[in-house]
Amino acid sequence: xxxxxxxxxxxxxxxxxxxxxxxxxxxxxxxxxxxxxxxxxxxxxxxxxxxxxxxxxxxxxxxxxxxxxxxxxxxxxxxxxxxxxxxxxxxxxxxxxxxxxxxxxxxxxxxxxxxxxxxxxxxxxxxxxxxxxxxxxxxxxxxxxxxxxxxxxxxxxxxxxxxxxxxxxxxxxxxxxxxxxxxxxxxxxxxxxxxxxxxxxxxxxxxxxxxxxxxxxxxxxxxxxxxxxxxxxxxxxxxxxxxxxxxxxxxxxxxxxxxxxxxxxxx
Length: 267
Fold this sequence. Notes:
This protein is an alpha+beta fold and 267 residues long. It has helices at 3-15, 34-42, 46-56, 143-151; strands at residues 63-74, 77-88, 92-98, 104-110, 114-119, 124-129, 164-167, 173-179, 182-188, 194-201, 206-218, 221-233, 236-249, 264-265. Helices cover 16% and strands 44% of the residues.
């Protein structure tokens, strides 16, 4: 696996954030949230009511850990890896990438201020401010964006009462709008969980589509076990299919990370 592919993997995680073995937990049927539907129908401002319903169904947590088998395609080059993800809410995202026979090939630590990546195959590292991500994603992307997409939550900035609400079939609905030059669309399921997030910035030639499916219950929380990400930035294209086969919330976690001696900065 080449150096630039490993580096771009973590850029993809931070830009969006980022499952086909079967999930061990039983799939959850996405039933309509009748209380939220009634409130939305009767509300003077249906958009505000819908946003409040979505917020009420956001997954809350202190810590999260998950293991995801991942098919990654960067500019036509495909790799199968396993991501071990640990999150301390609002503080840090730790990711270990393993390849064949469970060999760890890279590790990353993402915080609201910085991103660090160790490429063990090439003995190099990246140590940059979080704003480095904006070379590969819109400036609207922040640390909270990454957390939200890895858990299957709606991006808070897109829950804007100035958006337009469009009812759809089967209890689905869509919220469309624009934010600082970014055109967005949120597809909301009948259970008020996000099914798809689409972001487009035509002027910057950037687009991102994240699709959540195969919802499961984990520690009394409903989350997607399959997350599909398609990102395009100028002439760079990244696609990732993540399938969680293990998820846990609010367990004590360690986040070991250090740059080994002898490693040099990546070009």
